[in-house]
Amino acid sequence: MSAEIEKATGQKVTLVGGGGGIFEIRQDGEVIWKKEYSGHYPKPGEAAALF
User: Fold this and answer.
1) CA-CA distance, 31 to 34, in Å (whole number)?
2) For the chain, how many helices (H) and strands (E)?
């Protein structure tokens, strides 16, 4: 997924490990994807489309 986002934005992506089933995508500190709200992990192309 990080490669997909890097390709779409041209920016370096940092993955940060977590726990407890929490999955978020943030841009400049702002949450733009949260599994808790969507109910699923991003499908191919879905994460890159956020940028």
Assistant:
1) 7
2) 2, 2
